[in-house]
Amino acid sequence: MGKAIRLSGLVILLAALLAPAGLQAQPMRPHSMLVLDQSDRRGPFYYQVFVGLRDAVSAHGHAPTTVYTESLDLNRFGGEAYQEDFRRFLEAKYRDRPIGVVVTIGAAALELALRWRPQLWADTPIVFALVEEADFKRLRPPASVTGGIVASKLQDAATAARAVVPELKTVVLVGADWEQQVLFRNWKDQAAAGIPGLDIVEIIGRPMPEIVERVAALPDHSAIIYTGLYSDGKGNYYPPSDALSFVAAKANRPIVVTAETFLEPGGIGGFVIVPSLIGAEAAGRALRILDGEAPESLPPSVIDAVKPIFNWRQMQRWNVDQASLPKGSEIRFREPTFLEKYRWRAVALATALLVQTTLIAFLLHERHMRRSAEVEARSRLSQLAHINRQATAGELSSSIAHELNQPLGSILTNAESAELILASPTPDLQEVREIISDIKRDDLRASEVIRRMRSLLKRAPFEKKEIDLNQTMREAFDFLKLQASARNVAIYLQTSPQTLRVKGDPVQLQQVILNLVVNSMDAMAKMPYGRTIIGRTEVNGDASAVISICDSGPGIPQDRLNDIFDPFFTTKEQGMGIGLSIARTIVLAHSGQLWAENQSGGGAVFHLSLPLAA
C-alpha cells in the first residue's frame, strides 16, 4: 500500500512539473474581454487597432470569445466629473457581465483602468496597448498588468525627412498640445534636446487657421513632421486624419507622418505606427490569459509595430527617388507603369500572327466540345426528368390503381352477367349486345388510363415539335382529376378560346404542369377545407402564351420566393427539392420563363411563359 501511495504521489509531481508555465493553479476565466479605447473608435487609426484585435480574436479557435468595446473619447471630453460618471456607467452596464480580461488602448485608458480596477474589475488582468515607454514608467502598473509598449522616436521621423528632402535643414513639428499627444508626448523633450544638423520649428497646439497659413509658406530644404491634430482650436473636433487633409491641401513642403492611417490623406510616409499590429498583439496577450496563462508570465515588452512605409503619389509630387528611402521601405498606392499596364497586350499583339492557326483550331475544338456538352446536357435533362416523372407516378399510383379498378371491375361484372344470360334457355341477345357495348366502353376507359401512364413514364429524347398548349393542359388535368379528388381538392381548368401553338416536348411540358399542380396540392395538405386549384392558359400579346396554376393555400414566404426553384431546396418533410428545379430547367430548355408569386387574396400562383410558334 505504501508503495502505491508513493507511486501516485510521483505521478502527481511529474504532472505538476510538466504543466506549462503560467497554467498552474490558474482559475478558469470567462472568455470575454472589455476593450477600453481612450479615443473614438470611429476614427481611422483606432478603428484599425480594433480591426487587428477583432481579426485575431476571430482566428482564435480554442473557444469563442465575447468582445465588449467602450470609447472613452478623452480627446473631446475629460475632467473628474466625466470620468466618475463613466465609471458608474461601466459599473451599471457590466454588473451582470463577467469580464475575463480588460484591454486598454492608450495610456490615458490604462491610467483610468488602473484607478477603477479595485471597484470594477478586482483581480481581473489588464492588457494595455498603444502605450509609450515614458508613460509606462510613469504609471508603473503592477505585475498582473501586461501589454505592448510602442517606441516612437523623433530621430526616426527626422531620418525619414532627410530621405525625402535632400539637403534638409529644417523640420517643422505640427500637432496638438504635447499634453494631448498619445504617443509623442516625449518628443517635447527630444525636440528641446535638438537633432544635430537640423533646425526644429514647433507649430504645436495652434489653431487650424494659423497652422494652414504657416505651412503654406515654409522655406526650401524643410519638411513637416505631423503627429496629429484633434480640433481647430474653436471647439470643432475631428479625427487627426481629417485634420491632416486640411494641412496637406495648403502645405508647400512634404509631410512626414507617424501613423499608417495618415498616408492616404496626404502624408508622404515615414516610420509609421501600424495600428492593426498593435490590436493583434494586444489580442494575442489577452487570449493567452483567457486560455489560462498568468499575466505575470507575459511581461510587458516593446513591440515591432513601427514600419517604414511611404506614399507613392506624394513621392511623385515631391520628386522623391525610391532609392533614397530607408532600407526595407514599403511603397503604397504605386501606379503601374505603362509596360506593367499593357505588357500582356503587347505580347499578345506581337504573337498574334504566330498563334492565329492554333487559335482557330482551338475555337473549332471548343465549338465541337460545346455542341457535345449541349447534347450531353439534354440527355442528362431527359434522364433526370424521367426519374422525376417516375417519382410523380409513384405519388399518383394509388389514384391510378383506383381509376383502373373501376372499369376493370365493371368489365368483370358485365362479363359474369353475360355468362348468366347466355346460360339461360332463352338468352336475351339485345341485353347481351348492351353488355358487350359497356365492356368495350370500360375497356377504352382503362386503355386511356394506361396510355396516359405510359406517356408519362416513357423515356424519350428531348424533342421539340409544334403542339397545342390547351390540349397539353387538358391531358395533364385529366390525369390529375382522380388524385385531386382523393385529396379533397377542387381542380378547375380555364383554357384560352384560341389555339395556342408552341414548340416543345409535350411529355416534358406535361411533367412541368404535373409538378406544379402536385406541389400546390402538397401546399394545401394541412388545410381542413377550401382546397382549390385553378389552371389557366392565355395569350400574352403576340409573342408568348402563359400557363398559370393558382391555389388557395397559405402562399410562399416572401423571403423564400427566390429560393424555391433552387436544387434540393424544399419545405416538405419528405421532399427531395428537385421537382421545381427540374421544372425550371425544362422551361429554360424551351426558351421560356417560370416564376412564382403570392396572390393578393391568398394562395400562390405559378406562371409559365412559352414563346408562340411562328
UniProtKB/TrEMBL annotation:
- In this chain the Histidine kinase domain maps to 399-614
Residues spanning the signal sequence: 1-25
This entry's Enzyme Commission designation comes to: 2.7.13.3
Question: Pfam families under this entry?
Answer: ABC_sub_bind (PF04392), HATPase_c (PF02518), HisKA (PF00512)
- Species for this entry: Bradyrhizobium elkanii
**Which EC class is this protein assigned?**
transferase
Known InterPro entries for this protein? ABC_transpt-TYRBP-like, HATPase_C_sf, HATPase_dom, His_kinase_dom, HisK_dim/P_dom, HisK_dim/P_sf, Sig_transdc_His_kin-like_C
Chemical reaction(s) catalysed: ATP + protein L-histidine = ADP + protein N-phospho-L-histidine
One GO MF term: kinase activity
What is the protein named?
histidine kinase
Keywords on record: Kinase, Phosphoprotein, Signal, Transferase
